[in-house]
């Protein structure tokens, strides 16, 4: 799908989800297309959580 850079399925044995890396300009279109396809196939409405990558974990130095 145009705008999708990568996808990984997680927890498929328990309902599961996918983690999708999507170009910012394609987020709305990708959610619409995936939502419609999922709804047709399974008769359910998927949930989407849009987040942004950050620097991640780091070591904190104790204050004196």
UniProtKB/TrEMBL annotation:
SUPFAM superfamilies reported in the protein's UniProt record: GHMP Kinase, C-terminal domain (SSF55060)
Pfam families membership: GHMP_kinases_C
InterPro entries to which the protein is assigned, alphabetical: GHMP_kinase_C_dom, GHMP_kinase_C_sf
UniProt entry keywords in alphabetical sequence: Transferase
Top-rank lineage group of the source organism: Bacteria
Domain GHMP kinase C-terminal, first and last residues per copy: 3-37
GO molecular function terms listed in the Swiss-Prot or TrEMBL record: transferase activity
Keyword Transferase: yes
The protein's name: GHMP kinase C-terminal domain-containing protein
UniProt organism field: Candidatus Hakubella thermalkaliphila
